[in-house]
Amino acid sequence: xxxxxxxxxxxxxxxxxxxxxxxxxxxxxxxxxxxxxxxxxxxxxxxxxxxxxxxxxxxxxxxxxxxxxxxxxxxxxxxxxxxxxxxxxxxxxxxxxxxxxxxxxxxxxxxxxxxxxxxxxxxxxxxxxxxxxxxxxxxxxxxxxxxxxxxxxxxxxxxxxxxxxxxxxxxxxxxxxxxxxxxxxxxxxxxxxxxxxxxxxxxxxxxxxxxxxxxxxxxxxxxxxxxxxxxxxxxxxxxxxxxxxxxxxxxxxxxxxxxxxxxxxxxxxxxxxxxxxxxxxxxxxxxxxxxxxxxxxxxxxxxxxxxxxxxxxxxxxxxxxxxxxxxxxxxxxxxxxxxxxxxxxxxxxxxxxxxxxxxxxxxxxxxxxxxxxxxxxxxxxxxxxxxxxxxxxxxxxxxxxxxxxxxxxxxxxxxxxxxxxxxxxxxxxxxxxxxxxxxxxxxxxxxxxxxxxxxxxxxxxxxxxxxxxxxxxxxxxxxxxxxxxx
Length: 486
Known about the structure:
Strand order of the largest sheet: 6-5-4-3-2-13-12-11-10-9-8
Order of helices and strands: HEEEEEEHEEEEEEEHEEEEEHEEEEHHHH
CATH class of the largest domain: Mainly Beta
Structural class: alpha+beta
Shape: elongated
Oligomer: single chain
Strand content: 25-35%
């Protein structure tokens, strides 16, 4: 009998525990905290406010952190609407971007401003002011309106399986700007809880850690930020002291308005991965900017991106000895791409001539785990041009000299030589400086001096640049027509 009573007591206790857990979960689902008042994005925003945030967003380099400083300069009239005008400085690695941003008065979402801030403006809208999707200053005419801290729900996430956005608890948090009494607002996302910490009568949240919605696996970070500094009544611009690094590149004669038009799509050396790379400018210059878009693709399916890629971007010599590591320059052991797509900004430090850039893939694994597979790589030779606009020193494979010698002594005819050189240029085996394509006839005779140059070059009597000068002449005269490479 005592044993039965003991068993009954244990079961009763377990039942009480099991019944209390759903109540706690239901409380989380229904939300609401015991605090009077309400909040909306932009509450208390005023002229002279200065904010500095460390932040990231998944849509910008897969949540690579950057700093954004924002100073509310005053009002600006845009059509019939009065908006806030903010001066902004972004510190993104070694880059500084300075410009302006327009913020709405009902919801402080950026609606315009300097073109060069476009990517960062989008990240700011989708993170720091994201709660304006639920809470705005005006509830009339279909607006969201302020939301009470005691409300059971502020709204529902729009994605599939979305949960309620709810006030969860009152919490004191410490961020670089100080200690704040906050209300934690959160929602469930694919097994993880996203959290944003807001302060009564303060325009923007002071902290956030959120996750993207996934149906399985570990959800990656969607956005994360922390308030570094806040000041009121700042009368003179704290942004005016900064200059965009792009201006320095323009002053140095660099092209800053380029697209990633050059493309390389190849399997890695051991055929473990497929990599599709876009880079620009197509003719990079020493001391100027260069940008790469690296896509890691399944070797079995062109439409399937690889996930959780650990890699590095290197400069190597002809023996694959590393001369430069972009990961080490960022203070990391490796670069990481959770989605298989990575945007990389760099300054070209290499000397003019052919440079071997290399994507070194360590493997596929979360950042805390060392891949247990052999590394693989893809080498991308790129011609770097000097800043003075001169042609770089050419590096031509030595075996091409055999072809030139045979052509000079009549062993192969003009057409065979020209077609061979065209193929080598198109495939990137032989590189020449950018040359204006002529409109002449490809049947025109090749001058004797060009053939003589080829023979002298084959014998080592003249240097590579002299031989390349003859090839450029054939292109300029339309005798050799080079197809545009993909």
